[in-house]
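Now produce a polypeptide, keeping tokens residue-aligned:
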Amino acid sequence: MYDEREIIIDPEFQRLFRWDVGQKSKLIESLLLGIPLPSIFVFETEDGSWELIDGLQRVSTILEFMGRLRGPDGEINPPSVLEATKYLPSLHNAVWETSELIDVPMQEQRPIDKTQQLAIRRGRLGVEILKRPSDDQTKYDLFQRLNAGGTQANAQELRNCIMLMISKDYFRAVKNSAEQDAFKRVVSISEEQSERQRHMEMAVRFLVHTQVPYDGRLDVEEYIDEGIVTLAQAGNHATAADLINRTFQLLDEVAGNNALRRFQNGAYVGKVGLVGLEAIAVGVARNLPAILALGPTPSKTFVKEKIESFWEQQQVAAFSSSGLRGTTRIQRTVPFGEEWFRP
């Protein structure tokens, strides 16, 4: 089905969900030992083909090992090579068949025998077929519920996939903006946090808080989930990118990696937290045209002074109090920031 394009695996999903060699080896080990694999979930599209929703790594690992997995350009990816496992140490440097494309010298590659190939080909994989719902929202909800229990995917990685499902252009625009130097400096993202998509999470939270009203009814994570679906469906990717780029360029010019940090006793202290994002970044964004209208130098002076005096306000101290629920905090930080940064 995959060779005939009858089952669809979005290549960009493969970049977001990436198993290491140990996980891949254990999957192939399970097939060789006859251990049943969990079912995969697919949506049946209008033309009868299947769109893979849950089971991406299981399916792509098998296809990659066999040398059948295609990349975004349609070209076949280099086949994978396995490592020894607890029950099958013989899988060290195991390959489906030797290949110059594999990053292990050919003389060190150990092709599995025909019996093992047949065991993999005949391995059982249950398929749950979900008829395409009339409401795409159902599709996104099901995707999150099916994937939320996995150890490899965090909440933002799932949101990334949902944005891809809805609008590749929107996802790419947000991703490109979140990877700009100015944005990363202001939100102070480490390499490890970046790998876990923390920069994308901050960009998505910023966009949702700036553009989608919050009434406090939904849990914060559900509000962010629904908000980014709404924005991606609207598809205004140029507007999203422009909002992120201009806001964080201004904040970067004003205070760099101190822009969202607490200002106390004449110095910036602590880490960047959600209070700074929700009140300062969103507050500036919601007033951006009026702020920029002050002029190049006055706008920077205004923002810098407002950031420093922001942390002296009595209400702001309460935003970080222990026990304050996120649902309550957002209903305070965002409106306060919008008012505070109004010229």
Observations:
- The chain is about 55% helix and 10% strand.
- The two ends are 60 Å apart (CA to CA).
- Residues 237-255 form the longest helix (19 residues).
